[in-house]
Amino acid sequence: MRAESALESLETRVLPAVDLIISTATVNITGDPAVGSNQYSLNVLYKVKNLGTTPIDLTGVANDPSDNVKIRIYASMDTVVDAGDGNALGFDFDGIDNGPHVIGQNEESGLTAGVVFNARQTFNFFIVKVDFDGQVTESNENNNTFVIDAQDVSLVGGGGTVNVAPKATVPLDPTVKVRDLNTVNFKDGNFGATVTGAQLKDKFLLTQTGDGDDRLRMAGKKLKLGSKTIGTVVKVVPKESNSFQMSLRVEFTGDVNRDVLHRLMRNLSFRPGSKSTGSRLVQFQVKDNLENLSNVTETTVQIT
Ligand SMILES: [Ca+2]
Ligand SMILES: [Ca+2]
Ligand SMILES: [Ca+2]
Ligand SMILES: [Ca+2]
Fold first, then answer.
1. CA of 188 to the centre of ligand 1 (A)
2. Which residues of the chain have pLDDT under 70?
3. Given this model, what pLDDT does residue 263 score?
4. Could you report the per-residue pLDDT of 54-102, keeping only the tens digit for each?
5. The whole model's pTM is what?
6. Are 278 and 173 contained in the same domain?
7. What is the pLDDT of residue 1?
8. Are 299 and 159 in a shared domain?
9. In the chain, where does DSSP find H-type helix?
10. What CATH number has the domain bearing residue 140?
11. What was the pLDDT predicted at 223?
12. Which ligand is nearest to the CA of 184?
């Protein structure tokens, strides 16, 4: 009898509690901006979990949004939500409001959704926050955020083989694209191309594109857009002492938007010497304005 009453009094001391967290969240790029735009298509996924002992109804009365638990995705320079952090998407998420959606202890509820997002340099992190407006009283109000680092830069391209005759010229990767949600100006970053297994007289060439203020070209050690110098070009020619590795790197010293970077990468060409033979491995890599390095793309050049 004594043991039983002790157990009963222990049970009555366990306070009912709700504790919501974001147990997982991801943001993936599913579509790239059109020329002149910075608008990406994204797929957002999140899951809300109840760590508390009391079940919680996430949507309550059907067709009444006022009692729904809402999730907001903030855009923040740091990993903490504070007053200056805006709503990254311009709207909030909640569950389908067609009646109660109850989650008990350790149960999850979430969604995946396609959204659009304008890349910008005024944030580094997405922060997903459940119950951002305090609809529910929780035993822990300080664990409601989930931080997603949005600083990465990546390249999509490479993988193929391009054929070129000696002394002819071929663009190395005419459809390569850059993805970066928090860099729209690559000033202070760079672009590098490396050719392994080069031979004497192999060369890089940049095909000139655009007219007037939009004309992009290499002039000696300068990358020029119209009359403005926007980059410094460092070329290494193939020779025995560097194991016949040739490279080209452009350090961006002026404004370089996504479209200009694309024109640079897509119009960078390779010209083998008149006696060149064999194949070359070509690698591209980009560094963004925050020193983040992209993946390395690889293309093969076959001299035919
Ligand atoms: Ca919580
Ligand atoms: Ca509701
Ligand atoms: Ca912040
Ligand atoms: Ca970036």
1. 40
2. 1-14
3. 98
4. 999 999 999 999 999 999 999 999 999 999 999 999 999 999 999 999 9
5. 0.91
6. yes
7. 46
8. yes
9. 2-13, 258-266
10. 2.60.40.10
11. 98
12. 4
Alpha helices in 75-179 (DSSP H): none
Of the residues 149, 174, 195, the one at which a domain ends: 149
81 alpha carbon – ligand 1 mean position (Å): 14
Residue 266: what are its φ and ψ, rounded to 5°?
-80, -20
What span, in angstroms and rounded, lies between the C-alpha atoms of 148 and 79?
Answer: 9
Range of the domain at 170: 153-303
Report how far ligand 4's centroid is from the alpha carbon of 189 (Å).
Answer: 10
Q: Which residues pair with 102 in a beta bridge?
A: 57
Residue 292's CATH number: 2.60.40
Residues 237 and 135 placed together within one structural domain of the fold: no
For the chain, what is the domain count?
2
Compute, in angstroms, the gap from residue 16 CA to the centroid of ligand 3: 32
Residue pair 148/27 in contact by the 8 Å Cβ criterion: yes
b/e for 93-122, b at 16 or more Cβ within 10 A?
bbbebeeebebeeeeebbeeeebebebebe
Q: How far is CA 197 from CA 71, 280, 281, in A?
A: 53, 6, 7
Distance of CA 51 from the midpoint of ligand 3 (Å): 25
Place of tokens 């760079």: 190
Distance 148 CA to ligand 3 centre (A): 13
